[in-house]
């Protein structure tokens, strides 16, 4: 393992080795081979990063929002110059096809541009008062040190969704990189230095969640924690941060319903269902994993959906539709769950390892299941894999009832030609994002994203709503005394 590249922490504008001397191995998801050694950080490394971020806070938060926006614009421009390097790193670390990695980088640049522009706005409101000659206004102020914790499924997008709103609001950042996407976090850190961001404003801690992530959450000098990841880890974070009343934003899991009505365009619905369930190898919080089809079109849709699923190309080459799962642990988890199923439930996909380019690595073929009891493990669990379950319904009311039969509430989609049905569904379904005649995913940098139920804690990022996560609101009032004039 001596030849593997070492990915260190990034503290105060420089690389820093882990204090414990521990290194974790990151494996290539396509080949299963080791690809890098990653700093196995602990609370000592986290404390060093937080201290640096705290020291940088006064200067950074004293820049005007417009000046901070200029730094962000410079970062966006540097990302544009290095887009190929960034996309290659995303593709290699996650195993996603090159065109998907490139699209993700473009989305991250757009995110930087969006929040750079907020430097010229960062609006508050003016308020009226019951007292004559009193004026009142609401002003945004930085909170302090932001601890950002991200997963690896869309790694550069996940980082961008958090770091840019955190920075434009005047916070300094300690990012806990995803252990399966360490390189992209490191490239972003180097890039911020090269774009001229002052040292200490953006720091990266590598390592696993239980050690590095937990230490960041527990650190008393971290003022706001923004976490994207599983609901189970989100619960732990809320408990620990809640103890010291740190602000917490949680963007968690989903078990998202996709409804196909009898008046839908079936080919379009099958296309969007396949994209929602299988793109990014199903590793999306917004993936469609429960597909409800009206009885009269169930057979036709099932055939079109299975045909689409079977046509998808697995692999890491340009033009492939989906790559492998991110790591061995996740792969073995999915294999175990699918291994328990009866063949009667399998419409297509499953555990067979063909074609030959997917014999190694962590590949799962696009898999469609049916006739699963609603108390089954798969019906309830978020698998984070290219696996979708088909169910039927009689009436739109039943479809909504079934769609809402989950503790999650992240996204939902309906396919129908009826505007009344679509609007009615959009009002009734319990989800933070509702899409009509498209997929269950597809949010953009200016659109607030987040969920009901156990999909989050009520915050929304990104969009303008992210500014509320990363700023304190101060109400300032003044009495102008006309008798003094
Ligand atoms: P995960 O919860 O296991 O890990 C996410 C991050 O949290 C990683 O960086 C990990 O190291 C860290 N972590 C783990 N334990 C921790 C702890 N005790 N304290 C602090 N940090 C800890 O999730 P994952 O498997 O990497 O990602 C998949 C999950 O993320 C899915 O549930 C998916 O739905 C969710 N997700 C949600 C969104 C959203 O916007 N709602 C977006 C992408 C992914």
Task: Please tag this protein with its features.
single chain, 485 residues, alpha/beta, Aldehyde Dehydrogenase, Chain A, domain 1, Aldehyde Dehydrogenase, Chain A, domain 2, 2 domains, 5-stranded parallel sheet, 15 helices, 38% helix, globular, binds nicotinamide-adenine-dinucleotide, Ald_DH/histidinol_DH, Aldehyde dehydrogenase, Ald_DH_CS_GLU
Question: Can I get a quick summary?
Answer:
By secondary structure, the chain is an alpha/beta fold.
Give the helices and strands, then pairings.
Layout: E1 5-7, E2 9-11, E3 14-16, E4 23-27, E5 34-39, H1 43-62, H2 65-81, H3 83-94, H4 98-118, E6 126-127, E7 134-142, E8 145-149, H5 155-168, E9 172-176, H6 182-194, E10 202-205, H7 209-218, E11 224-228, H8 231-243, E12 247-251, E13 256-260, H9 266-278, E14 288-294, H10 298-311, H11 328-339, E15 346-350, E16 365-370, H12 377-380, E17 387-393, H13 396-403, E18 411-415, H14 419-428, E19 433-436, H15 466-470, E20 471-479
Parallel strand pairs: 1-5, 8-9, 8-11, 9-10, 11-12, 13-14, 13-18, 14-17, 16-17, 18-19
Antiparallel strand pairs: 2-3, 4-5, 6-7, 7-20, 15-16
Helix pairs in contact: 1-7, 2-4, 3-4, 3-6, 4-5, 9-10
């Amino acid at each position: 393992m001596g030849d593997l590249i070492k990915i260190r922490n990034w503290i105060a504008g420089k690389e820093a080795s882990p204090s414990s001397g521990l290194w974790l191995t990151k494996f290539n998801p396509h080949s299963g081979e080791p690809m890098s050694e990653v700093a196995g950080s602990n609370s000592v490394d986290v404390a060093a990063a937080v201290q640096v971020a705290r020291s940088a806070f006064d200067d950074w938060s004293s820049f005007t929002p417009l000046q901070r926006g200029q730094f962000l614009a410079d970062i966006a421009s540097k990302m544009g110059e290095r887009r190929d390097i960034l996309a290659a790193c995303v593709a290699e670390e996650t195993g996603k096809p090159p065109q998907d990695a490139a699209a993700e980088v473009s989305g991250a640049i757009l995110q930087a541009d969006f929040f750079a522009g907020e430097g010229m706005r960062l609006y508050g409101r003016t308020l009226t008062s019951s007292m004559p000659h009193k004026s009142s206004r609401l002003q945004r102020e930085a909170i302090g040190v932001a601890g950002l914790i991200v997963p690896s499924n869309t790694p550069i997008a996940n980082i961008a969704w958090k770091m840019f709103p955190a920075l434009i609001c005047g916070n300094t950042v300690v990012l806990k990189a995803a252990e399966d996407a360490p390189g992209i976090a490191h490239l972003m850190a180097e890039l911020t230095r090269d774009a001229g961001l002052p040292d200490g404003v953006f720091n990266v801690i590598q390592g696993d969640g239980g050690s590095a992530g937990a230490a960041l959450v527990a650190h008393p000098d971290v003022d706001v924690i923004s976490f994207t990841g599983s609901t189970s880890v989100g619960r732990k974070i809320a408990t620990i941060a809640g103890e010291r009343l740190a602000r917490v934003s949680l963007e968690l899991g989903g078990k998202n319903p996709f409804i196909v009505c009898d008046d839908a365009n079936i080919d379009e619905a099958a296309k969007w269902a396949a994209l929602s369930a299988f793109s990014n190898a199903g590793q999306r919080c917004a993936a469609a994993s429960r597909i409800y089809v009206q009885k009269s079109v169930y057979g036709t849709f099932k055939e079109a959906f299975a045909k689409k699923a079977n046509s998808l190309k697995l692999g890491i080459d340009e033009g492939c539709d989906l790559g492998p799962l991110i790591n061995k642990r996740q792969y073995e988890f999915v294999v175990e769950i699918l291994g328990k199923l009866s063949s009667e439930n399998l419409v297509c996909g499953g555990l067979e390892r063909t074609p030959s380019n997917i014999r190694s690595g962590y590949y799962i073929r696009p898999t469609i299941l049916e006739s699963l009891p609603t108390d089954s493990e798969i019906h309830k669990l978020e698998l984070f894999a290219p696996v979708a379950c088909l169910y039927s319904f009689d009436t739109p009311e039943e479809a909504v009832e079934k769609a809402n039969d989950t503790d999650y509430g992240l996204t939902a989609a309906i396919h129908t030609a009826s505007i009344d049905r679509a609007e009615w569904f959009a009002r009734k379904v319990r989800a933070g994002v509702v899409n009509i005649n498209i997929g269950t995913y597809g949010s953009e940098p200016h659109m607030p994203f987040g969920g009901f139920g156990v999909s989050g804690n009520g915050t929304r990022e990104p969009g303008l709503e992210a500014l509320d996560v990363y700023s304190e609101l101060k109400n300032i009032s003044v009495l102008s005394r006309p008798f003094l004039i």
